[in-house]
Each structure stands twice: as structure tokens, then as C-alpha cells.
Amino acid sequence: MPEQPSTTLPDKLMFDFTRFYVLVILYEGPIHGYGIMRKFKERTGKEISASLIYPFLHQLEARELVEQKIEFVGSKEKKIFELTPKGREFCENLFERFSEIISSAIEPSLETCASCGAKIYEGGHEEDVNGKKMSFCCVHCAKSYLRLIGSK
Ligand SMILES: [Zn+2]
After folding, report:
1. Strand 31-32 and strand 76-83: pairing?
2. Is the pTM higher than 0.70?
3. Cβ atoms within 10 Å, residue 80
């Protein structure tokens, strides 16, 4: 049997996208278990199984990060899950750490504008400068660069 890595719960969560995404959904507001499954499917295009989600919710509950409330729809009882203030704080810390990891992974591969040096996240503007393709954040930067080097 493979040995279980001895990570703490927050670290394990960090590297588990599914659970991470469930927290993102919970952070948006109180929701039913099936609502989590539906949103997960809508956003990621992937199914999430009840056998994964409920044990996870109960784990969060045991750590007082989530609480269950009963809502009545007619005579039917429905359980809704809601983050506690402690749970919201936990999520905020987690999201912050996660975005730091993501930006440090992405940044080195980003191109920078040849004129102003800004990072080009998406789109940007390519311009042929003396037969060489150069990247700019926008058309205005491309124009001022061309003016500067006296081309066109
Ligand atoms: Zn620029």
C-alpha cells in the first residue's frame, strides 16, 4: 500500500483542485449539496461525485469551517451548507496563497511591452518593426515606440 503523505489539511487542500473549487463555491454563499455539484459541473465541465463532496463537507464541519442549516421547502427539509466566519477567513487565506502560486508560475512566461515594459496578460498588440515582430501592450505603445525609433 502506498504511504499517505503526511501533509496537514490546509496543504492537502492547496493541491486538490476539486476541493479548492468547492470552497470557491461555498464562499459565494449558502448552498445545498446538490447546488455545489451543479455549479461545479457548470463551471468546470466536470462531474463531482456525492461520495467526494459530502465527506469533504463533513470534514469542514468538524473543523468548524462550515455549518449546516436546515431549510424547509414546503414540508421538505433541505440541508444547506454555509461557511462560518472562521471558514471565510480560512478561504481568504487559501485564495491569497493560491493566487500567489499561480502568478509566480505564470509571470516568467509573460511577454512585456517593448515600449512601456508592462506585462502583456492577454491580447496585446503585435507590430512589425523593421521586419521583426515585436509585442506591445496596446496599439498606442506600438505607435509611440515607432515614433521614438523614427520608423513610419
Ligand atoms: Zn505598453
Report:
1. antiparallel
2. no
3. 15
- Between the CA of 103 and the centroid of ligand 1 the distance, in Å, is 20
Task: Pick 9-108's CATH classification: 1.10.443.10, 3.40.1780.10, 3.90.180.10, 1.10.10.10.
Answer: 1.10.10.10
**Which residues crowd ion ligand 1, with CB under 5 Å?**
113, 115-116, 118, 137, 141
Q: What distances in angstroms separate CA 103 from CA 12, 16, 64, 97, 119, one per listed residue? A: 20, 18, 30, 10, 12
Q: Which three cell numbers stand for residue 18?
A: 476539486
Compute and round to an integer the Cα radius of gyration of the chain: 23
How many Cα atoms are found within 13 Å in the side-chain-facing hemisphere of 103? 7
Query: What would the pLDDT profile of 77-132 be if each residue is shown by its tens digit?
Result: 888 999 999 999 999 999 888 888 877 777 777 788 988 988 888 788 999 888 88
What is the grid cell recorded at 21? Answer: 473549487
Q: How far apart are CA 76 and CA 102, in angstroms?
A: 43
